[in-house]
From TrEMBL:
This is Glycine cleavage system H protein. It comes from Pedobacter segetis. Gene3D superfamilies: 2.40.50.100. The glycine cleavage system is composed of four proteins: P, T, L and H. Its cofactor is (R)-lipoate. The gene is gcvH. It comes from the Bacteria. The modification N6-lipoyllysine is found at residue 63. Keywords: Lipoyl. The glycine cleavage system catalyzes the degradation of glycine. The H protein shuttles the methylamine group of glycine from the P protein to the T protein. The keyword Oxidoreductase does not apply. InterPro entries: 2-oxoA_DH_lipoyl-BS, Biotin_lipoyl, GCV_H, GCV_H/Fam206, GCV_H_sub, Single_hybrid_motif. Belongs to the GcvH family.
Length: 124
């Protein structure tokens, strides 16, 4: 399983890739494996300020629907529109083409887990 060291992680299995005052957010490889084949991603929070821990969308897999939790306070700037037609990108490339939202950060990300801390959390 892949745990890119440059990313930050949450206990709810989201990842954050910081780029200045913005960040990309998605779900981890561990999360997408647990969910199975993803068939639909529903995020309609563009332009909204979302607090850490709030639900910002859902992911639907063949057998379940799971909420997506905001890992850090931010304003959602963009949704990965490629997921509309190709939600399986989350399964194929969760840390690349399968990203979900781009946000403007409203606070530092130092409260998130490192790759090593996340690996320990999921028992890898």
């Amino acid at each position: 399983m892949n745990f890119p060291a440059e990313l930050k992680y949450t206990k709810d299995h989201e990842w954050v890739k910081v780029d200045g005052e913005n960040a990309l957010i998605g779900i981890t490889e561990f999360a997408q494996r647990e969910l199975g084949d993803i068939v639909y991603v529903d995020i309609n929070t563009v332009g909204k300020e979302v607090a850490e821990g709030d639900v910002f969308g859902t992911v639907e897999a063949v057998k379940t629907v799971s909420d997506l939790f905001m890992p850090i306070d931010g304003t959602i700037l963009e949704i990965n529109s490629n997921l509309d037609a190709n939600p399986e990108l989350v399964n194929k490339d969760p840390y690349g083409e399968g990203w979900m939202v781009k946000i403007k950060l409203l606070k530092p990300v130092d409260v998130l887990l490192s790759a090593d801390d996340y690996k320990a959390l999921v028992g890898v």
